[in-house]
Amino acid sequence: MFKIIAVSNRRLCSGGFVQRIKEITSAGTEVILREKDLSPKEYAQLLDKAGHKNIIPHSFYEQARNAGHKKLHLPLRMLSENPQLAEEFRVGVSIHSPEEAAEAQRLGAAYVTAGHIFATDCKKGLPGRGLKFLKAVKQGTQIPVYAIGGICADNIKEIKETGADGACIMSGFMRCADVKEFIYALHRN
User: Fold this and answer.
1) Nearest residue to 169 via CA among 188, 189, 146
2) Residue 89 in contact with residue 70, Cβ under 8 Å?
3) Residues 102-119: pLDDT tens digits?
4) CB 13 within 8 A of CB 174
């Protein structure tokens, strides 16, 4: 089944950020809590406010451990430097090439997020890597591959057609007027 994962960005969020996270997780969608610019203490406080339900901490593995989380999302460099984390957590890894995907898999990643697929404001001025890139990542790994970057209801069908296991979406979740309607539109297409 094609899976949708939200990625947080409090700077893009219209309305209360923690409330938005809870709306998404209450709808049954996981959220990669990606607030990498926070201090460890601030991130721990955010994890506490967000709760455990459907939250995947990003990068802050000590805070994730202390809060009892079993999942974690990391940049490949961080997993390379701390390969034992793949034994402690169900680890997802951000990758940008088929070779990086293979390396993440070798290091014990449970899944990868491959991007960015389409042009996106989050990577302003950089062209998307495209659907051929996504297909190459999927064909070169045995673990789930989730597309990320510029994905919306208008283009998600193209992602599904590549054989990707799912999609990660940031801006749409942070800015939408109604979370449940947004999720419905993604699954409908």
Assistant:
1) 146
2) yes
3) 999 999 999 999 999 998
4) yes
